[in-house]
UniProtKB/TrEMBL annotation:
Species name: Paenibacillus terreus
EC class name: hydrolase
MF term (GO), any: hydrolase activity
Protein's UniProt keywords contain Hydrolase: yes
Top-level division of the source organism's lineage: Bacteria
Keywords in alphabetical order: Hydrolase, Metal-binding
Record-listed E.C. numbers: 3.1.-.-
SUPFAM superfamilies: Metallo-dependent hydrolases
Protein name in the entry: TatD family hydrolase
Length: 263
């Protein structure tokens, strides 16, 4: 059984003491591919280092909405240059976050639009972070013609109505630990309706730890727990769920094609 953790943060300081063991745990659990996400000036270089060190770890690079206020002249060009690397498979995570009051909404929206524009120029998929900003996310994705590149709605938490709008723009929906939470009704209901060819799984480790480890540090090995929960919701075997979501990830991020083009 092959699993694909499509969103993780292995470069987090929470893994400084045992990063190699955490990666080994994931491999032992059947995780054959991971996408590490670099989202600001500090985490993009460490993400690139991981992708260059491990053949099965890929990179997404972008500017997180929480850090939008820190984006400077030249950072967009930096992201563009990194997208030429064979291991960089997406621009992200980018988006809007109206929960944390660290970057003004207008700054977040401007930075998001800039990065969608870059993705369209380069033909790169995008990874969208959306917290408490469903309507504005959909509006900006439409206005910036994000359907031309598509991408992933990371850790999807919206309603089925929002999900349908995202699916219609060519996005995949990715689910993580919350689908294992007892009281998380909405993500389970949405996942049940998502077409199998648009479904992805992730951990977002070290955050959003699935049951029964909720409250502790998350890790990529726990994507197996997400797969088991998703398979139960879908009424299929975990082996089938793993196979489909792994194939979806390879296709969504053009992994095989990108490696071949750059060789």
């Amino acid at each position: 059984m092959e699993l694909f953790d499509t969103h993780t943060h292995l470069d987090s300081p929470q893994f400084n003491e045992d990063r190699e063991q955490i990666i080994s745990n994931a491999v032992e659990a059947g995780v054959t591919r991971m996408i590490n996400v670099g989202f600001n000036r500090e985490t993009i270089p460490s993400t690139m280092k991981l992708a260059e060190t491990y053949d099965f770890i890929y990179a997404a690079v972008g500017w997180h909405p929480v850090d939008a206020i820190t984006m400077q002249d030249g950072d967009l060009e930096w992201i563009a240059s990194l997208c030429e690397h064979e291991k960089v498979v997406a621009i992200g995570e980018i988006g809007l976050d109206y929960h944390w009051d660290t970057s003004p909404k207008d700054v977040q929206q401007r930075v998001l639009r800039q990065q969608i524009g870059l993705a369209r120029e380069l033909g790169m998929p995008i990874v969208i972070h959306n917290r408490d900003a469903h309507e504005d996310i959909v509006k900006i994705l439409r206005e910036e013609k994000a359907h031309e590149v598509g991408g992933v709605m990371h850790s999807f938490s919206g309603s089925w109505e929002i999900a349908k709008l995202c699916l219609n723009m060519g996005f995949h929906l990715s689910f993580g630990g919350p689908i294992t939470f007892k009281n998380a009704r909405q993500p389970k209901e949405v996942l049940a309706q998502v077409p199998m060819d648009r479904l992805l799984i992730e951990t977002d480790s070290p955050y959003l730890t699935p049951h029964p480890f909720r409250g502790k540090r998350n890790e990529s090995a726990y994507v197996k727990l997400v797969a088991e929960a998703a398979a139960q919701i879908k009424g299929i075997s975990v082996e089938e769920l793993a196979a489909v979501t792994t194939q979806n990830g390879l296709e969504r991020f053009y992994i095989k094609r990108k490696r071949e083009i750059n060789r």
